[in-house]
Design brief:
By secondary structure, the chain is mostly helical. It is built from 5 helices and no strands. It is rod-shaped.
């Protein structure tokens, strides 16, 4: 008796491969059957990736608002404030030591 139950393992495709397949489908220089054979995929999968590419293509040319909102500015503002204090302190110390000219 074989350990294999006849089930195929699920294949996982990276984004680069999906984009390659979807772009090939968009070119329309090959039939869907040819693409299925070339990439060893089911036609439904190719059609789905093509739909996803078309639906999300505008994101390539614009900045999604979620990406902008995801940046937490609090630590950046704190760092700027800290550096401003350090610069002021060093400027004062250099002036007292006579190492910095008054006219900057």
């Amino acid at each position: 008796m074989s350990k294999s139950s006849g089930r195929r393992t699920r294949r996982v495709f990276n984004a680069e491969f999906k984009a390659k397949v979807a772009l090939a489908a968009l070119r329309e220089d090959k039939t869907l059957a040819d693409l299925c054979q070339q990439f060893e995929l089911h036609p439904t999968q190719i059609i789905e990736w093509k739909k996803q590419l078309l639906a999300n293509a505008s994101g390539v040319f614009g900045t999604p608002s979620k990406a902008i909102e995801a940046v937490d500015l609090k630590p950046l503002h704190a760092k700027i404030g800290q550096q401003a204090l350090e610069i002021d302190f060093l400027e004062s110390a250099l002036n007292k030591a006579g190492l910095l000219s008054a006219d900057k």
